């Protein structure tokens, strides 16, 4: 990147686009998945070991 003054700009633009693609992908997935605001907690299982 030191030898090409535009390399950092290109790298940052690509990194930003990639991050935005992930953000948009997760946002679209969140719209499709309905998660209840109150979920039943999972009861802990026994800690006894079985021989």
Topology pattern, helix = H, strand = E:
H
Radius of gyration: 23 Å
Overall structural class, as computed from helix and strand content, comes to mainly alpha
Q: Spans of 5+ residues with little confidence (pLDDT < 50)?
A: none
Strand fraction band?
Answer: under 5%
Largest β-sheet summary: none
Task: Give the averaged pLDDT, no decimals.
Answer: 79
What's the number of helices? 1
Give the proportion of residues in helices: 40-55%
Architecture overview:
The chain is mainly α and 51 residues long. The chain contains one helix and no strands. The longest helix has 26 residues, at 7-32.
Question: Which short descriptors sum up this protein?
Answer:
elongated, mainly alpha, 51% helix
Please sum up the structure shown:
Helix content is 51%, strand content 0%. With 51 residues, it is an all-alpha fold. The N and C termini lie far apart (59 Å).
List strands and helices in order, with pairings:
Blueprint: H1 7-32
């Amino acid at each position: 990147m030191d030898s090409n003054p535009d390399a950092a700009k290109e790298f940052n633009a690509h990194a930003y686009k990639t991050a935005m693609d992930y953000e948009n992908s997760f946002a679209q997935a969140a719209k499709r998945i309905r998660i209840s605001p109150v979920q039943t907690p999972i009861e802990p299982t026994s800690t006894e070991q079985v021989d």
